[in-house]
Amino acid sequence: MHLPRPFSAGLLAAAFSLVACAQVAGPAKNGPPSYGPELEGFDYPHPVQRFRFTSQGQPLQMAYMDVKPEDGAQANGRTAVLLHGKNFCAATWQGTIDALSQAGYRVIAPDQIGFCKSSKPQRYQFSFQQLAHSTRELLASLGIERAAVIGHPTGGMLAVRYALMHPAQTEQLVLVAPIGLEDWQAEGVPWISIDQWYERELKTSAEGIRRYEQATYYAGQWKPEYERWVQMLAGLNEGPGKHIVAWNSAKVYDMIFTQPVVHEFGEIEVPTLLIIGHKDTTAIGKDRAPAPLKARLGNYAELGKRAAAAIPGSRLVEFEQLGHAPQIQDPKAFHDALLDGMKAQAKGH
Q: Which of 14-23, 44-53, 54-63, 158-167 has the lowest average pLDDT?
């Protein structure tokens, strides 16, 4: 495989040695904190465990949180699996983990391979099928046969693939502000190479993350509590493992762009809850699209209805004033809708 220019022989060895032994530099002067390539130094809200397995001929580890029903809550015997998005980690599900555990759920929140506290392999063929298979292996190792699978943006695409591959093990599917409700490549967004994605990812900064999240995640609003997630991403992307982090991120973007799931919505066999924010405008490659196409991509008020019509027996919840991260922007409204929707569908099936 041809690696980008920064992965020349000497730097390649140096960069990847950091994956194994990088030390956290701590807060940088006048800048974001510096976290290791597996997000070393950033604290998660619950103890992190690691599922060690072999995939594509190499040893890997998937970080995850396994949170039991909260003390005093009546266990309902159900498990919820939370699948994070591209620019998110298991930790960003903090409020949702708490809401579900208080409602009696056991909650499993993994970091997928290539993300956050999990392995960042140099050579790996990323596919939604591969990530779904690894997630199923994790759950099997924990003795979990069936679960409600809840996916947010890219995690929504992964959750769809998981439900298609493992319908008997999917008790319920919940798609929270999912991407992939349209096929950007088929719509005419130009393809770019993994090398080009890599060069783009190397330019990631706290300022750019903050500006994008304010516009897309929070519908132009900003609150101090959002900054923690900006610093999490910036510290990972600007830390000592930035090259391997950017390389994995580039391959994930290629996976997202070239592996649509929207054409298979009609094949979903499990109860599905869609939660959509009308202020969401996310569309992969939108910045590269011709002006007329750019204007119509990422219209979630329309995309949510279209997806609900395509998924048999689905239920749609819409928030007119929320964006791409409703669970963070308005936790109470979101969690009320999530728990009510999950409960209603469980009774109906």
A: 14-23
CA distance 196 to 192: 6
pTM of the model as a whole: 0.91
For residue 224, with 0-12 CB atoms within 10 Å meaning exposed, 13-18 middle and 19 or more buried, which class applies? Answer: exposed
Band (pLDDT 50/70/90 cuts) for residue 41 is very high
Geometric angle at alpha carbon 132, from 336 and 341, rounded to 5°: 15
The full set of domains in the chain, from first to last, is 28-348 (3.40.50.1820)
Q: What is the pLDDT of residues 145-186, one digit of tens each?
A: 999 999 999 999 999 999 999 999 999 999 999 999 999 999
Which residues 6+ apart lie within 8 Å of 223 measured at CB?
A: none
What is d(CA 333, CA 75) in angstroms, rounded to the nearest whole number? Answer: 23
What does residue 333 show for φ and ψ, rounded to 5 degrees?
-60, -40
CA atoms within 13 A on the CB side of 229: 27
Q: Is 51 helix (H, G, I), strand (E, B) or coil?
A: strand
